């Protein structure tokens, strides 16, 4: 990942609703959520939600799949991994044992 991609991802997450959407989709896991369900859960109107989902999709942090007439959204785990890897690229000055507590905290149980 390059710096420009990371900046796009951070810009997408720097708005409260988009951060809430991204965290909600991470919690939803592989099942994802429809745009309507996301909006209903977060109390956000459809047109506002659509704009926010577009920003997150362009940043590479979420992906979508069409299901008939609706669209289901998912957290893009590769995009998230890329962003975390970018942040930790030069971590700990060549002493990986110092990074292990952070890695343990990020790992799924």
Automatic annotation (TrEMBL):
Gene3D superfamilies: Winged helix-like DNA-binding domain superfamily/Winged helix DNA-binding domain. Signal peptide: none annotated. NCBIfam families: HTH_metalloreg. PANTHER family: ARSENICAL RESISTANCE OPERON REPRESSOR ARSR-RELATED. The keyword Nucleotide-binding does not apply. InterPro entries: ArsR-like_HTH, HTH_ArsR_DNA-bd_dom, Metal_resp_trans_reg, WH-like_DNA-bd_sf, WH_DNA-bd_sf. GO terms for molecular function: DNA binding; DNA-binding transcription factor activity. Residues 1-95 form the HTH arsR-type domain. This is Transcriptional regulator, ArsR family. It comes from the Bacteria. It comes from Primorskyibacter flagellatus. Keywords: DNA-binding, Transcription, Transcription regulation. PROSITE patterns: HTH_ARSR_2. The keyword DNA-binding applies.
């Amino acid at each position: 990942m390059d710096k420009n991609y990371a900046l796009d991802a951070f810009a997408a997450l720097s708005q409260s609703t988009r951060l809430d959407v991204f965290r909600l989709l991470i919690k939803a896991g592989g099942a994802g959520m429809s745009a309507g369900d996301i909006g209903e859960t977060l109390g956000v109107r459809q047109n506002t939600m659509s704009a926010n989902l577009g920003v997150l999709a362009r940043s590479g942090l979420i992906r979508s799949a069409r299901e008939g007439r609706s669209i289901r959204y998912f957290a893009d785990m590769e995009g998230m991994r890329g962003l975390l890897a970018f942040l930790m690229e030069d971590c700990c000055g060549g002493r990986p044992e110092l990074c292990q507590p952070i890695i343990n905290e990020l790992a799924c149980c």
